[in-house]
Design a protein that fits this description.
This protein has three helices and five strands. The chain folds into two domains: 2-50, no CATH class; 53-84, no CATH class. It is of the alpha+beta class. The chain is elongated, with a radius of gyration of 16 Å.
Length: 85
């Protein structure tokens, strides 16, 4: 499995079974963006090397915890929008 992701945010955009398909998708997305904004790698590499773990503080309890650097705001207990729903 190969993952296409946005380089700056490390957000996963698409996944493919074959590297050739992922490479073609990245080429099209980068051409549309006008810069090298997207890349692809093997799924295991994406989880271990691309996505970093960051330390955050839970908004209500004040306890620190670790989460993926690309966790959306509405899924992060460190943000008000998580608790508002």
């Amino acid at each position: 499995m190969f993952v296409v992701y946005h380089v700056a945010s490390t957000m996963e955009k698409k996944s493919f079974k074959f590297s050739g398909h992922a490479a073609k998708c990245v080429a099209k997305m980068n051409a549309k963006a006008g810069e090298a904004a997207y890349a692809f790698c093997h799924a295991a590499t994406y989880v271990t090397s691309v996505v970093k773990t960051v330390e955050k503080t839970n908004l209500l309890s004040g306890k620190t915890y670790f989460e993926a650097s690309n966790t959306p705001v509405y899924l992060s207990p460190s943000c008000e929008t998580y608790w508002a729903t």
